[in-house]
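Supplementary Note 3. Input sequence used for the single-chain structure prediction.
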Amino acid sequence: MICSGIDAFTGESIAIEFDRTIQSVRTVEPLRDAPCIAPGFIDLQVNGFAGVDFNNPGASLEDISRAIDAILHTGVTRFLPTVITGAPDHMLACLQNLRRAQTTLPHGHAIAGFHVEGPHISPEDGPRGAHPRQWVRPPDLAEFARWQDATEGNIRLVTLSPHWPESIEYIRTLSAQGVTVSLGHTIGKGDSIRFASNIGATMSTHLGNAAPSPLPKLENLLLDQLANDDLSASFIADRIHLTDEFFRVAVRAKGIERTVLVTDAAAPAGATPGRYHLGELEIDLTPDDRIFLAGTSRLAGSALRMDVAIKNLMLVAGVSRADALRTATLNPGRIIHLEGRTKGLAPGDRADLVVFGPDLAIQNVYLDGTPTFFPVRASTLKR
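The predicted structure, written as discrete structure tokens, is reproduced below.
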């Protein structure tokens, strides 16, 4: 198969020949009014989508399939379903159910692995975010082994707080196994953050969110992570979770090479306003696309689409389209060591492609070389 258009990174007119992987990329005579081509987007944090809660172990394969198709329509071709803090048996059942979806659904291979966010986080209000306090617990390698057994070794990312004494052995062990360790929902700062990065932690999860309030003016965990060049950082670029000013400064501090966009999408993303669930929690989607823990003003995930996040990064931080695309393609692929998704539009990488027109309006999406975009269904998605 051949796909022609404008290379979204270089601006050159190109023709890509591919089957499941990219076979060749060659420059061609300048194309007029051609769409842009980029690698498919990668989202490292998706709690649910299109009304489907990935933290519900009873979510049907049919519902998960519908959610995956809706995610593909946003340009995301690989993503990590994210299981948050819960009872041990509940979390295990969620992972088993999602692994079943990964291995049996037609587009299940869009699931690149799994992200476990918690339960080894701060129990304090503020840093804990919307995670249920009663299930917060210290890092436990035996529990991690059960997660890996349930997913047949497909845990790719774990978010924890480094303040636990048990986190030292935990971070070292997971890192040695090739699992990406990210710091988040934490009260750890200064020495604990530096030490965690020295022994294997490589990212901060949705930096700027789930932090104590207020923070000391000059010495605080946000500055400690922003200043650490060994840590990349993910950001929820919905213009709700972060102020424009913080996001702009944070991107400047981390640099494009260490910036990763995530949606942190929950079940209401891509759906209509109303009451939904995030695991055992009830959450509400408001008409202005904010998701709150029911009955509170506490944010509980987002209704963000990755294509919108990319546009927001360009608008707020003033970065180029090529740089914004890197934060949703090459950077997350590198962070989780995703095989076949670290080169970009280059021979040997998977033929995960997104084709888009002006204003990042998506026209086609290829997953392993197969077109997956159906305009009639895509038009029903909320933008």
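The chain is about 25% helix and 25% strand. Residues 40-341 form a domain with the TIM Barrel fold (CATH 3.20.20.140).
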